[in-house]
Amino acid sequence: MPLSHNCKALLRRAVPYIEPDEELMDSFGSLYERLVSLNQQINVTAVTDEAGVTLKHIADSLSPLCLEELGEFRAPLCYDIGCGGGFPGLPLALTKENMKITMVDSTEKKIKALEESVRLLGLNNVRCLCGRAEELACKGSAHREKADLVFSRALARLDMLCELCLPFVKKGGYFIALKGKDAPAELEEAKNAIKLLGGRLVRLQETTLSPNCFDGLELTEEERAVAQEFARSKRYLVIIKKIAPTPDKYPRAFAQIKKKKL
Ligand code: SAH
Questions:
Q1: Which of 21, 57, 88, 213 is the least crowded, having the fewest Cβ atoms under 10 Å away?
Q2: Ligand 1 pocket check for 39: Cβ under 6 Å
Q3: Are 83 and 151 in contact (CB under 8 A)?
């Protein structure tokens, strides 16, 4: 199913750094359709209107593609940690066939559903892995320090998130956290964790759209309201480079991660 004309226009304005062809737009339409039908079986999102999914899930997931750092890798090995219904990993994998993405989630029924999404979308650059991040990336694991790029959205606050994600990243790779308005405060709290885990903050990049981003588009009233809310919402990418190996004792067990901040 293709995305509607209006949603295609919204997407083009929200992510001007990619130029989706009709085939990709059709894939985003199929992803939307799949998300809505999946959501009737298991709750993966509160957003089910087409404009909302297009902006808050698809466009938001694509925001890392504006980063010049991604150009450092020809065929990056990527992980999406705590991927839930498939964000940001699925839109990224649909857009960039050269990215090989491992989607990780601790909930088995989400991973089962995701496997079906991957099949329906015809993606062959994605694999799905059920497990807890802190177990999959522990010392000696096949997933530890293997990734060029790790992405994560809406899994935890940045200090905890770094312990869950940075152990997957190999030296020279990047952890990219997709964050909302609290990113600057979360970053302050996470500075020590980043250092302890072998990371170095490259920068906090604001990706908030301009308030007039969607001006001049013909939209329904509902679509206009969704677009305005999205354009107003503050969004950031936290870009962390792995510069040293993560010490063997990290990641700790989840109870410890929660109890004692790094
Ligand atoms: N990234 C998605 C989903 C966010 S919800 C999005 O932005 O829409 C957080 C997801 O992380 C849930 O699906 C939950 O099952 C998963 N999760 C929670 N703790 C985890 C852990 N320790 N390791 C792996 N996945 C985890």
A1: 21
A2: no
A3: no
